[in-house]
Write a structure and sequence with these properties.
The complex is a heterodimer of chains A (about 160) and B (about 575). Chain A is an alpha/beta fold. Chain A has a single domain, classed as Rossmann fold, CATH 3.40.50. In chain A, about 35% of the residues lie in helices and about 25% in strands. Chain A has helices at about 25-35, 55-60, 85-90, 100-110, 135-160, and strands at about 5-15, 40-45, 60-70, 80, 115-125. Chain B is of the alpha+beta class and about 575 residues long. Chain B has one domain: Cytochrome-c3 Hydrogenase, chain B. In chain B, the strands form 5 sheets. In chain B, strands 3-2-1-14 form a 4-stranded antiparallel beta sheet. Classes of the chains: A alpha/beta (about 160), B alpha+beta (about 575). At the A-B interface, strand 2, helix 2, strand 3, helix 3 and helix 4 of A face helix 1, helix 4, helix 7, helix 8 and helix 15 of B.
């Protein structure tokens, strides 16, 4: 276990049992292949793990989240949100449901441990049907997401230097 | 004329849990309906899969309860194939489950439930000096100086003046049912933040013993992670010491923060006598010191209580097809093509969806017809409460001395009668008390594990029935576990090496289930809401308290990030 803060953390979130809801997690093994050897990048399957994800959020300077995003757009549309826009789109509190990722971000913010940079990318899903596989079209879009991840990582790295 | 109030956390109809209640002129709830509005058909996904793989799918049922579902699943296959787990494997599983309880219950108390009792905004007006005195009077916990509380208060003030409440948005702040003095509120907010730090640590027990977290590894036949005190590629001595320390730190946090806070908060809410519910309790039991199949050795015993009768602990047989059955009379399913009329034991269970609810946006559910995705599990026909209160009540009635001592001691400290257990407060207190007991069992099991390793018993996995050619043509088994939220059961039927049928009954299904047909068929959520008074019907805080006291978890279904519907909490009056 590495307790020192990672410079860049890539977190795939979502539920892999509901088709494209799992797109963030689907990307993770591909990203592990790309960044597995890089000491400055941590790639994690965050799934739906609620408050247990706080560590990953708080112990990084640059956080990249990959998730299915409902923006009311055409299925397959690539969506990118940044900085303060991200928590604005959440807002769960008095929810009966367990804590969502929104609360994890809010908790990190309240504790002054919010990442310096935070970007969220995702896709408008084709399907949320109960099925442990991302749709074929979703898999195609995932390739674009992975390319986008590479670009974002590069831009963060070049800002560091 | 009664008035219908709707509390639906998600505006869209595929939301999770929706509650509708009818109140009378005095604001007392007369009738209640709990509706699980998200479908969960996991059973269908694992059909025909290799039984040894099922746990890996099934644990994704929920991000929070992942390891308990994985454990229930591997236990079902082990029961079906009569596989015995080596001692070290059993103890590793116990320690992981105990850590899961410590994590879940602390997170539930501070991050999901405390704000129903603690007014965050009021903390801004507390006197840090007096807060420090209060904290030091109830606990030796070291973080209790006036300066420490002042810093926390400054953060709260900053948040309040910014107008962006962030994590504390959407609360019913200032509601008349909040009773704590400002200083107690400030102390609780400080511990809310400390608990966030602590919970990050305790999950490392799973990272170490389960190989990874989220979603630790389990295996049919034992555990996947080998123990070798000298190898870098196994659970070695240093890692074991780390787990040991995490358990000790956990015990300290529970004894010096969680329990003192619970008692301090409870002492201001002794009048919260509503929310008791049905007083039928079911515990399947767990926490065997050595062998899961040795039911009498369970530290959390198995049994059922009906109508609050603590003099009679009834035996429970999870294999008997006439005892545990699920009904669908008020849920959106069919059995054998019919709308209901009979119950099915999980071995014969069926998951056939038949949604007949509202098709579009709607104001109220038609509660005279089917109204939920939750089936109605019953024990010998009775609706039953499961969870911490059920376990404490069954354990108390069964004569478990450690459970009796902690329950009696707490009631004495608060000056409350035993009947106080059967309230919203009793349910919340039971969760804290069992956390203390289970944390101590965590220490015991860790010591037993270290001792076993010292004696050379490092095997965590029994491979004798790994190969499907050793299996009978057909087999079936129930995977039983007391998960933090209550009795969790997975039942598998194996045919020709494949999963022929699979059914799970999760704790929230017992508690949140709809009405059955006939007398005394109201389940825990609905029964607990009935009779609950609302101080302000526009801010139904008491409903939230009662529901949260059960620690609901309707299977983390779709949590899709939503840019369309930013409004997620909706209180409708109609």
């Amino acid at each position: 276990m590495n307790n020192s803060p990672s410079k860049i953390t890539i977190l795939g979130i979502g539920n892999t049992l509901y088709s494209d809801e799992g797109i963030g997690v689907y990307c993770i093994p591909f990203l592990q292949q790309i960044f597995g050897e890089c000491e400055d990048v941590l790639v994690e399957d965050g799934s739906t793990d609620g408050m247990k994800l706080l560590t990953f959020v708080e112990e990084t300077e640059n956080l990249l989240i990959i998730d299915a995003i409902n923006a009311g757009k055409e299925p397959g549309t690539f969506i990118r949100i940044e900085g303060e826009e991200i928590p604005k789109y959440f807002g769960v509190k008095m929810s009966i449901h367990q804590m969502g990722f929104a609360e994890v971000l809010a908790a990190a913010q309240f504790r002054d441990k919010y990442p310096k940079n935070i970007i969220m990318i995702g896709m408008q899903p084709y399907s949320l049907a109960l099925c442990p596989e991302v749709t074929d079209q979703g898999k195609e879009t995932a390739k674009l997401l992975i390319e986008e991840v590479k670009k974002i990582v590069e831009s963060w790295r070049s800002n560091e230097s | 004329m009664s008035e219908r109030i709707v509390v639906d956390p998600i505006t869209r109809i595929e939301g999770h849990l929706r509650v509708e209640v009818d109140i009378d002129e005095k604001g007392i709830i007369k009738e209640a309906y709990s509706s699980g509005t998200a479908v969960r058909g996991l059973e269908l996904i694992v059909k025909d899969r290799d039984p040894r793989d099922v746990w890996a799918f099934i644990q994704r049922i929920c991000g929070v309860c992942t390891s308990t579902h994985a454990l229930a699943s591997v236990r079902s296959v082990e029961a079906a194939l009569d596989i015995k787990i080596p001692l070290a494997g059993h103890l590793v599983r116990n320690v992981m489950l105990e850590a899961q309880y410590m994590h879940d219950h602390v997170v539930h108390f501070y991050h999901l439930h405390a704000l129903d009792w603690v007014d965050v905004i009021s903390a801004a007006s507390a006197d840090p000096e007096a807060t420090s005195k209060l904290a030091q009077s109830i606990s030796p916990w070291s973080k209790s100086s006036p300066g420490y509380f002042k810093d926390i208060q400054d953060k709260v003030k900053k948040l309040v003046t910014s107008g962006q409440l962030g994590i504390f948005a959407n609360g019913y702040w200032g509601h008349p049912a909040y009773k704590l003095p400002a200083e107690a509120n400030l102390m609780a907010v400080a511990h809310y933040l400390e608990a966030l730090d602590w919970q990050k640590e305790i999950v490392k027990v799973h990272t170490i013993l389960g190989g990874k977290n989220p979603h630790p590894h389990f295996q049919v036949g034992g555990m996947a992670t080998p123990i070798d005190i000298n190898s870098d590629n196994a659970i070695h001595a240093e890692k074991l010491m780390h787990v040991s320390k995490l358990i000790d730190d956990g015990i300290k946090f529970i004894n010096e923060v969680y329990i003192p806070d619970l008692l301090a908060i409870a002492s201001f809410y002794k009048d919260a006598t509503y929310g008791g519910g049905i007083q039928n309790f079911l515990s399947i039991g767990d926490f065997a010191p050595k062998d899961f199949n040795d039911v009498p050795s369970y530290r959390m015993p198995r049994g059922a209580i009906l109508n609050g009768n603590l003099n009679d602990v009834l035996p429970v047989d999870p294999e008997d097809p006439s005892e545990i059955q699920e009904y669908i009379d008020n849920a959106w399913y069919t059995y054998d093509g019919k709308d209901g009329g009979k119950g099915k034991h999980p071995y014969d269970g069926e998951t056939t969806f038949n949604y007949t609810g509202p098709k579009k946006e709607y104001k109220n559910l038609d509660t005279d017809k089917k109204y939920t995705w939750c089936k109605a599990p019953r024990w010998k026909g009775h609706p039953m409460e499961v969870g911490p209160l059920a376990r404490m009540v069954v354990g108390y009635a069964a004569g478990k001395k450690d459970i009796q001592d902690i329950v009696n001691g707490t009631l004495e400290k608060l000056g409350l009668p035993i009947s106080a257990l059967f309230t919203v407060l009793g349910r919340t207190a039971a969760r804290g008390l069992e956390t203390k007991l289970i944390a101590d069992w965590g220490r015991e099991d860790m010591d037993a594990l270290l001792k076993a390793i010292k004696n050379g018993q490092t095997t965590t996995f029994d491979s004798s029935k790994w190969d499907p050619s050793t299996w009978p043509k057909t087999a079936k088994g129930g995977g039983l576990i007391e998960a933090p939220r209550g009795f969790l059961g997975h039942w598998i039927v194996i045919e020709d090496g494949k999963t022929a049928n699979y059914q799970a009954i999760v704790p929230t299904t017992w508690n949140a289930s709809p009405k059955g047909v006939g007398e005394n068929q109201i389940a825990p959520y609905e029964a607990s809401l009935m009779g609950t008074p609302l101080a302000d019907k526009e801010q139904p805080l008491e409903i939230i308290r009662v529901i949260h006291s059960f620690d609901p978890c309707l299977a983390c279904a779709v949590h899709l990030t939503d840019l369309e519907n930013k409004q997620t909490t909706e209180i409708k009056l109609g």
